[in-house]
Amino acid sequence: MSEFEIRTLGVEEHRAACDLFRETVHFPPADDAEWVLAARYYQPGGTLGAFDPELIGTARFFDAELTVPGGARVPMAGVTSVGVRADRTRRGVLRALMTEQLEGFAARGVVFANLLASEAPIYGRFGYGLATRFRVYSVDRHRARLRPDAPVGGAVELLDLDRALEVCPGVYAGLEHRPGMMTRPEVLWRLYELQLRRHASPVKAAVHHGPGGPDGFALYHVDGLRAHPWTKNLQVVDLFAGSAAAYAGLWRFLLGVDLVDRIVVESRPVDDPAELLLADHRRGNVERIGDEHWIRLVDVPSALRAREYGHADPVVLEVYDPLLPGNSGGYRVAPDGAERAEGPAGLRLDVTTLAMVYLGTWRPSALAAAGRIEVRDPAALPAADLLFGTRVAAWSGSHF
Ligand SMILES: CC(=O)SCCNC(=O)CCNC(=O)[C@H](O)C(C)(C)COP(=O)(O)OP(=O)(O)OC[C@H]1O[C@@H](n2cnc3c(N)ncnc32)[C@H](O)[C@@H]1OP(=O)(O)O
After folding, report:
1. How far apart are CA 273 and CA 175, in angstroms?
2. Fewer Cβ close by (within 10 Å): the C or N end of the chain?
3. What is the rounded CA–CA span in Å between residue 2 and residue 18?
4. Domain boundaries, the chain
């Protein structure tokens, strides 16, 4: 028998939920100034609380759209601020919050839920699979040069944070989105505003101007390293460019900022071409590849219908989804689309593994080799690799 109740919080309860979440990640409660900003990233009706009768757990979401292979933008819920009080963990509170939240998404017609996981083992059991990855890339500014044939780019304008927060959302909204990118609703920009404003050193934006107006930006701050205070890191927290010229133009600007030894770009796709712009690619380093968005196919038929597929013989998948059993069943995936299907399946996989395949980040054959896909027809595996393969690596670049 459950000893707690789950319900949607009223707006007047959001601050308590925010403080509870912050406590679970070992942050102090929001002070009044922070709460002015934080309140704006709590979407009304988007926060659940667990009570026993005190508030002991919480999870929230905001609405956005996810770009899938082929370019369609599909309704998604960004899931975040999940936490359970340390003295009430491991008694099913998270499971109850996740179940209630996913059933709510399904009822509202949300196709995907996305989250960034604090720990990798938590969310697979709820159907979330690791679907995008990012890389952290650094450059030795003193020794790095762009190749002479690197695209030239246009003017770059330096903005302070207030102005950046006015300009960058519009630039971002106008960009073409690769698979895995999402729209950034107002609530997300307010979260970034809070994070950027509490940064000790000033945050700036370099905005690139292309032929049609602003078409890229790099948000960054410059910090001394603790071990070597005279060494300065230029830390790029957000970098987007709408064209090759904008991307090269932003790098040319960053490499020209004085009193900087090292440039670190915190999140770019794993197929990012930065090293191809450098005259000597050894002046740049991939510091790390990290797990980014975990996606949950809330509505498997709609999700499979929304994306485009590569050229190969059709494959029938048998999908099983213990939490949202309406998703379980057979699906025929072919170059011209996907639909529910009866009959023998070539591959059997759970909804978590399907999420890992869906944006093209993991090949079905790699997952089968790891024992995560049951292969009933060996010819289905190479066909599935081609059907789900994508031209570019999935990446979001939006962290929450
Ligand atoms: C999207 C985001 O917001 S990420 C941020 C997540 N929040 C945090 O990391 C804050 C600190 N941690 C917490 O608040 C809690 O420990 C939570 C939210 C991670 C888990 O809450 P709990 O109420 O303890 O989880 P619950 O008891 O429902 O466990 C559900 C299952 O997940 C497992 N699980 C829970 N936490 C963890 C963990 N940290 N690592 C591995 N497994 C876990 C449980 O063992 C259980 O497994 P089972 O299904 O096999 O029985």
Report:
1. 18
2. N
3. 24
4. 5-115, 134-290, 300-388
Pick the CATH number of 134-290 from 3.40.630.30, 3.40.50.720, 3.40.50.300, 3.30.930.10: 3.40.630.30
- Dist. CA 94 → ligand 1 center (Å): 6
Band (pLDDT 50/70/90 cuts) for residue 226 is: low
Which numbered atom of ligand 1 lies nearest the CA of 59? 3
Binning pLDDT at 50, 70 and 90, where does residue 224 land? confident
2 is in an annotated binding site: no
Q: Which fold has domain 5-115?
A: Aminopeptidase (3.40.630)
ipTM exceeding 0.95?
Answer: yes
Q: What ligand 1 atom has the least distance to the C-alpha of 116?
A: 1
Considering only CA atoms, which residue is closest to atom 45 of ligand 1?
A: 90
Query: 298 pLDDT exceeds 80?
Result: yes
Enumerate residues 6+ apart whose C-beta is below 8 A from 79.
59, 60, 61, 101, 113, 114, 115
| C-alpha pair distances (Å), 324 with each of 78, 93, 173, 296, 329 | 18, 18, 33, 11, 11
For the segment(s) 300-388, the CATH number from 3.40.1190.10, 3.30.420.10, 3.30.1050.10, 3.40.1650.10 is 3.30.1050.10
